[in-house]
Amino acid sequence: MSNFISIKNLAEDDKPREKLALKGKAALSDVELLAILISTGTRKKTAIDLAREILQKAQNDLNQLARLTINDFCTIDGIGPAKAITIIAAIELAGRKQASETKAKAQITKSRQAYDYIRYRLEDLPFEEFWILTLNRANIVIAEYKISEGGVSATLVDLKKIMKIAINDLASSIVLYHNHPSGALIPSDSDKKLTFKIINAARELEITVYDHLIISNNGYFSFADEGLL
After folding, report:
1. What percent of the chain stands above pLDDT 70?
2. Neighbours of 6 (CB within 10 A)
3. Does domain 105-222 have CATH number 3.40.140.10?
4. CATH number for the 7-99 domain, one of 3.30.420, 1.25.40, 1.10.150, 3.30.160?
5. Coil, strand, or helix at residue 144?
6. Which tens digit of pLDDT belongs to each residue from 131-188?
7. Cβ(140)–Cβ(106) under 8 Å?
8. What are phi and psi of 5, to 5 degrees?
9. Which residues touch 24 (CB under 8 Å, ≥6 apart)?
10. At what angle do helices 189-204 and 159-168 cross, to 10 degrees?
11. Are strands 173-179 and 141-149 parallel, antiparallel or unpaired?
């Protein structure tokens, strides 16, 4: 207890809220921004101490931080469900902001644009999900749809559901997405078989599969870029 220093006793420039007000948000470190979300510490730890412990748990990687669950946060002494939920909500809001900047009448003409459009939904998930984008003739996004979700290594995909959505949207083409929670970016044999199955079904309806992206927290793999479509 003798080494404990309350945030109240810090110099004005070292208090995260006051520092943000005086110098702007860009002047704050990740620890300081996180401390603002945590708001209060404990008798033995300041909010900054708790923020530092959380970032250490995430290996000082904001992508890893986004993958932490409520239970993960609550393993840190001084962090309860309320603080954990506040942090998770802030991370989700930041992801949605990034997504909204990408989505305004988005046109998909290359794999990176397709990746940026939906990455925030998939890259930090602990289980697999399968999504599609429907595109018009100008390759402008009509809508996005989650087709299915599953376990750590697989998810079932309903081909009829994909085709029905594409027809209802009068889509000229579609982009397929799924994630690999393991971080691996190599398509499995089942990934390839599913892709070809969807391509063949779409072709009968004069709909093009523009790309299929595998997404992880390590980046993405594009079937189109690799000549696999």
Report:
1. 88
2. 9
3. yes
4. 1.10.150
5. strand
6. 999 999 999 999 999 999 876 555 789 999 999 999 999 999 999 999 999 889 999 9
7. yes
8. -125, 120
9. none
10. 40
11. unpaired
